[in-house]
Write a sequence for this structure.
């Protein structure tokens, strides 16, 4: 039951919303929390009811441990042992389900042994609910949590809008919200429905279309079809847009759904392809994950407190872990490593610039955006490819090492220049990944969207769509007032019609799951 | 109620009202379109009946080349269906063979069965749809229509009144030959088709190739003869394939498989003139009629045509 599937749209969401409205109207806030918690557990159990045993056990374990850490202040070193043990149990469970087979395969691959590996069923959202509870335990140890009941804690972990693919929420920003009744049900519904509709659009239309085209290049490469220069770039661009719209769409849907129930989620996505450098990219892409790694890994291992060389090393460690968090595969480690290297270069560049020319930027902003986009594209190749061999083939294609081919029927367009192009190495042949001029229009449209259009939180800046993170303050957006969203009758009619179309499209099915659903 | 709340309340009311009415109108029109225009002329019911209850001793399996290239006759059940992958075709043939009474299976042996888009197509529900006893209450939810729902929706929504008017019968109208279209258009269409159909390199090394061989052995083991057929295509299509090595590799795979397993391989790729085609690679009905007799005759004779 994904957010764009008919079961969710036509059954789960209306029923849960109706129960929420009734509970909110006729019962106390505790009942509202119990209703939402129960609905969330049903949502989670829909895929595999057995998984609910694991998540409930994990919640009980961490809640009780958090209680001990918070209350046993006089325990001294014993608290640290409790914390370490608690984190170890959480990470061991995660390791067992997600990384054990990978570890065994890696040991076998390195010739250090010959063990039988068996892939285990990966419980949904295990990375998300493990990490947010680890953060809770650490904060209990630090004395940065307040006493909370089991029901709000249960809802904090299971709340269905974030459960399967984030955002990676924080107890400090969520649990207090469960304790108070939102007084603005109509504004919450208006903003939530509209943001959810925007997310549904991103997922069902551009993400699905781009995914088909990206698949044709990467699956073809995996099957042995060498992608030529233009095919490779088209494939990588399509994947870059697919993951952008897929994740941005999911984040919008999560924020919109949550808002319908009067809860504000942290902003998770802030036009990352507009970043002028890779540091800014990570302040705009999966912001809640960046925050988690900053607060619970980068700073604890030393952060930037021990000199610049050590801080760059810490950065690389964090990015390798971030890569591994995305999946038990070396390709994700390489992706994380690439980003780590890019970040190190970027910090080095900024330090050099500060030393020699002060704060004056050496490159125009548009060039920074373009270069950042290119390096992000390169890093997406191992992320998307199903093996390192496929990634190598696509990267070779991007460098033109697999030849330069144009569609056969384009030869007529070039007239007399065909011979000259042929001498230059351009071939006119069948291009299996080329979907005609319409594909170029789509790609240009997507590029325009990600570079020039305001993001969802900027559009909704007058209605506090989400919690501000990592300095991405959407309220400071230069978006003209007349472009910002405001509720009115015409908007409601148009929005309703568009969402009706999208719901109908959802009935047709086959848009595929969310990319971050697998993590 | 203050004005702040009433604005939002109005927005939600308008949003939900248009959402619900939009959905109701869409469902109503699409369902009407399907029931009034599509179902009465749909060949799927006939196809399903033929698949489940057909009694001919010869059956053909494959994609639209088979579906449009052969004509149902008392001696042959054409169970080719547009966009069927090789796996689907083989599975259908197995299901049909298990029912008994089959003496000869005509299996498609065209290179596009190894194209990337076919290899990754997920058609797990194609056979279950055929053996399904009960249909969902709404025709639009039937899997065979649901996958094309937006096309039906667009057709219904762009002419809502036409949905409720009688359908114009096109039966008897002459089919338009591919040959009658401008030369440039013919070439372009053929090139685009070939781009889509280009097989992956070394198709003989794929697991699918192994499944193809195993399926033929399975049929032979059950005493059913097998005939591999490469269907005709236009001259423009053939010209476009000439530059793509994997087309030759796929044809070689089919020929070698036939040779190794001792079954006929009939390559009709260049056997018909362009005037016999409705598009770059699909036969007109009239040509298909004649072609069916020819295939039946050659397969029955165990004739071997070299690639």
């Amino acid at each position: 039951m994904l957010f764009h599937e008919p079961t969710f749209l036509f059954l789960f969401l209306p029923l849960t919303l109706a129960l929420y409205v009734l509970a909110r109207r006729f019962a106390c806030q505790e009942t509202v929390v119990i209703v939402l918690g129960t609905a969330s557990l049903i949502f989670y159990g829909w895929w595999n009811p057995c998984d609910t045993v694991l998540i409930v056990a994990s919640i009980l374990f961490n809640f009780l441990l958090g209680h001990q850490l918070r209350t046993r202040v006089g325990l001294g070193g014993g608290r640290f042992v409790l914390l370490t043990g608690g984190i170890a149990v959480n990470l061991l469970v995660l390791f067992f389900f997600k990384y054990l087979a990978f570890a065994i395969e890696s040991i076998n691959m390195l010739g250090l042994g010959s063990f039988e590996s068996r892939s285990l069923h990966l419980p949904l959202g295990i990375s998300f609910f493990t990490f947010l509870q680890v953060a809770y335990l650490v904060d209990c140890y630090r004395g940065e949590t307040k006493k909370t009941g089991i029901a709000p804690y249960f809802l904090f972990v299971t709340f269905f809008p974030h459960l399967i693919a984030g955002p990676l929420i924080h107890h400090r920003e969520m649990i207090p919200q469960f304790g108070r009744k939102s007084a603005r049900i109509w504004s919450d519904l208006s903003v939530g429905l509209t943001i959810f509709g925007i997310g549904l659009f991103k997922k069902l239309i551009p993400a699905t279309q781009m995914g088909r085209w990206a698949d044709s290049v990467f699956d073809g490469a995996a099957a042995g079809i060498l992608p030529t220069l233009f095919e490779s770039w088209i494939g990588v661009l399509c994947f870059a847009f697919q993951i952008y719209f897929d994740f941005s769409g999911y984040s919008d849907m999560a924020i919109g759904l949550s808002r319908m129930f009067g809860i504000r989620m942290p902003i998770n996505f802030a036009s990352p392809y507009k970043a002028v450098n890779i540091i800014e990219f990570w302040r705009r892409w999966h912001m809640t994950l960046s925050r988690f790694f900053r607060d619970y890994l980068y700073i604890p291992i030393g952060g930037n407190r021990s000199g610049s060389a050590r801080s760059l090393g810490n950065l690389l460690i964090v990015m390798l872990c971030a890569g591994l968090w995305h999946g038990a595969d070396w390709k994700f480690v390489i992706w994380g490593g690439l980003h780590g290297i890019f970040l190190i270069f970027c910090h080095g560049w900024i330090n050099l610039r500060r030393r020699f020319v002060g704060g004056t930027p050496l490159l125009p902003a548009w060039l920074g955006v373009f270069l950042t986009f290119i390096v992000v594209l390169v890093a997406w190749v191992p992320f998307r490819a199903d093996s390192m061999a496929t990634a190598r083939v696509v990267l070779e294609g991007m460098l033109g090492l697999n030849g330069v081919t144009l569609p056969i029927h384009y030869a007529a367009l070039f007239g007399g220049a065909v011979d000259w192009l042929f001498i230059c190495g351009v071939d006119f042949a069948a291009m299996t990944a080329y979907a005609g001029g319409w594909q170029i229009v789509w790609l240009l449209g997507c590029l325009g969207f990600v570079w020039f259009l305001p993001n969802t939180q900027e559009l909704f800046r007058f209605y506090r769509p989400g919690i501000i993170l990592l300095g991405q303050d959407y309220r400071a957006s230069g978006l003209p007032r007349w472009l910002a969203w405001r509720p009115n009758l015409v908007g409601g009619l148009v929005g309703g019609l568009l969402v009706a179309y999208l719901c109908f499209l959802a009935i047709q099915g086959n848009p595929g799951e969310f990319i971050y659903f697998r993590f | 109620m203050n004005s702040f709340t009433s604005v939002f309340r109005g927005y939600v009311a308008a949003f939900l009202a248009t959402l619900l009415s939009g959905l109701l109108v869409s469902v109503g029109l699409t369902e009407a379109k399907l029931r009034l225009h599509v179902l009465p002329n749909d060949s799927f019911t006939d196809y399903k009946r033929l698949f489940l209850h057909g009694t001919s001793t010869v059956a053909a399996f494959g994609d639209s080349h088979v579906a449009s290239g052969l004509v149902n006759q008392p001696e042959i059940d054409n169970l080719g269906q547009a966009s069927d992958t090789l796996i689907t075709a083989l599975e259908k043939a197995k299901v049909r063979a298990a029912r008994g009474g089959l003496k000869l299976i005509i299996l498609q042996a065209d290179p596009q069965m190894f194209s990337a888009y076919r290899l990754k197509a997920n058609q797990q529900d194609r056979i279950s749809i055929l053996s399904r006893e009960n249909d969902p209450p709404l025709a639009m939810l039937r899997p065979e229509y649901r996958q094309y729902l937006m096309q039906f929706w667009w057709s219904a929504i762009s002419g809502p009144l036409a949905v409720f008017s009688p359908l114009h019968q096109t039966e008897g109208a002459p089919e338009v030959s591919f040959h009658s279209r401008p030369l440039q258009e013919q070439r372009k269409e053929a090139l685009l088709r070939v781009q889509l159909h280009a097989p992956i390199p070394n198709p003989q090394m794929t697991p699918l190739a192994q499944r193809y061989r195993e399926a033929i052995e399975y049929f032979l083991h059950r005493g059913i003869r097998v005939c591999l057929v490469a269907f005709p295509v236009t001259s423009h299509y053939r010209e476009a394939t000439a530059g793509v090595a994997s087309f030759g590799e796929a044809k070689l795979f089919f020929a070698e498989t036939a040779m190794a397993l001792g079954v006929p391989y009939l390559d009709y790729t260049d056997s018909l003139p362009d005037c016999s085609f409705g598009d770059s690679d699909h036969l007109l009905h009239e040509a298909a009629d004649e072609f069916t007799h020819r295939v039946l005759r050659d397969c029955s004779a165990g004739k071997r045509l070299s690639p």
About this structure: Chain B has a mean pLDDT of 87. The beta strands of chain B are 58-61, 76-78, 104-108, 225-230, 265-267. The CA atoms of residues 62 and 306 of chain B lie 21 Å apart.
